[in-house]
Amino acid sequence: MAKQTKINWSKHSQLIVPLLSIALIVLFNAFRDPSFFSIEITTNNAGSTVLTGNLISILNGASELAILAMGMTLVTAACGGQDISVGALAAIAGSVFVKVLRAGEITPVTIALGFVACCVVAMAFGAFNGTLVSAFKIQPMIATLVLFTCGRSVAYWINGGATPTVESPLINAIGSFIPGVPVPTPILIVIVTAIVLALVFRFTSLGLYTQAVGINQRAARLNGINTTMIKLLSFMILGVCCAIAGVIAVSRLSLINHETLLLDIEMDAILAVAIGGNALSGGKFKIAGSVLGAYAIQALTITLYAMKVPSTDVKAYKAIVIILIVVIGSPVVKAKLSQLWKKIKEGKQGKEAVRA
What we know:
It is a single chain. The chain has 356 residues and is mainly alpha-helical. It folds into 2 domains: 28-36 and 47-308, ABC transporter involved in vitamin B12 uptake, BtuC (Orthogonal Bundle); 313-356. The chain is built from 17 helices and 2 strands. The protein has a two-stranded antiparallel ribbon with strand order 1-2. Strand 1 (40-43) and strand 2 (49-52) form a beta hairpin. Helix 15 (287-306) runs antiparallel to helix 16 (311-328). The longest helix is centred in the middle third of the chain and has 27 residues, at 108-134. The chain is globular, with a radius of gyration of 22 Å.
């Protein structure tokens, strides 16, 4: 008799809400416009063969959000709160990146130095936020309100109150396409970031410790886990994610505008974590869910624009749909659906027993 493989659905249940959200958007567009997700091969201005289409736009446009959602997931899981300063911190990191690039000729070495510099600065600001939360026991949203308020002003000061440009084929390649590679570079950066985090969780105990601290901080401390360091580390990793997002955003436009760079993205990052099935009160988390949540938000945005919805009305429509998604994924609704499924399953087993 062939051995049956039983799938552990409880292990993947956290991904149901983001997958369902994406499935509904796909289904809606399939009826509205069957060609919505078609991918075309075209030639860009540089003469390179590239992939285009709404699907590519969704994956490409959500790159910064997906990266920020990864870091936000760790902070949420460890601290039971959210960092509302990620947009401002990305602006600071982007300003540092531009400052280094403008100090000399733009070469691969200069770009690498600029990236390292903005990562160090972003980690330092992340450590500042983390210290307020872990050492002074301030709620994450309140602690990060400081940087949320003043961060863009700091970004403004770094470049002397200017919005300098950084025109270079190398910078354009980071923000758009690498010559000879048909996939947008930001998508590749998201993949690399996800792989690095996956390897960190695979070969260290960071994921386990983060969940333990988020579930029960006192018990984690009694078991020898340095809860202060775990919280601090989660904010520093989020700082690196902000730096990566800032570099991508700067490279897309080849300039730094501290006022508009990733403006209001912190709200979408928090929402992506929520849609991803992660408890905003901390504890168990799944970064893949947050990434899917980011793509669900971007897919909804692109769908609304494709329907010719005015840009001023997009946020209102997004809010309505997002409320539905969040309510469906709420613990109350999940519990009710679980009870309903259990009753259906028990009824089915009862009928099979009667037949036997």
